[in-house]
Amino acid sequence: MGVINMASVTLYLVRHGQTYFNIYNKLQGWSNSPLTDKGLADAKSAGERLANVSFAAAYCSDTTRAQQTAATILTENNVSNVKQPISSPFFREQFYGSFEGENMNYVWDQVGRPHGLNGFKEIEEKYSIAKAKDFMKEADPFHDAESNDEYWHRIDRGFDLIRENDDLSDGDNVLVISHGNTLLSLMERYGGGKYDLSVRPENGSVTRLALDDQKITVLGYNEK
């Protein structure tokens, strides 16, 4: 497969609908919990808002919450021929290792404590979301949580998967179902300091990126 020689395609990144782990404030990276009734409504609302956007392709992680959200959005769409998303582990949320399924506040306190910090917000403010990934890998007793380098190596392969789609043309729109921490990480990396990283993107919100064979540019974030 060859990389597309393209000026740009527009990625519509939608955060999956609300899940039970979201309600219970549990870390949900590679682990999974079903969409709630509100989560299904989040996906339907996003689909209605994007109903007249013509998508040339759709991608999501291989988690149920992402697949359900993608299917709902594509069902609501009036103008696309795409009926099924391409699922790949490249689009998964950050892997939290042995902290998967634990209370978020408890875990981030454990991660921050060796550095004299309490919680994710203090880590992000003093260091960065990138550093929070490295701190979590250090704190994980099994050291299975993804480091920042491991995380981006995987996520970048997801963007390359889109670039390698020979059916895409310049100017096409692509649907991508994404995850909360991934969207924050993208804003830290590509947002140029314009976005408040202390506020998590809403379930069902839309973030738009311009993707070409060289770079990624943020067009809009957490739009509802």
From TrEMBL:
Keyword Lyase in record: no
Residue sites binding substrate per the record: 15-22, 65, 93-96, 180-181
Q: Which terms does the record give in the GO molecular function aspect?
A: fructose-2,6-bisphosphate 2-phosphatase activity
Site residues by UniProt (Transition state stabilizer): H179
* Active site as annotated: H16, E93
- Write the record's keywords in alphabetical order, separated by commas: Hydrolase
- CDD domains hit by this protein: HP_PGM_like
Keyword Hydrolase annotated? yes
One GO term under biological process is: negative regulation of glycolytic process
> Matching InterPro entries, A to Z?
His_Pase_superF_clade-1 (IPR013078), His_PPase_superfam (IPR029033), Phosphoglycerate_Mutase (IPR051695)
Q: Name one GO cellular component term.
A: cytosol
Q: What is this protein called?
A: Phosphoglycerate mutase
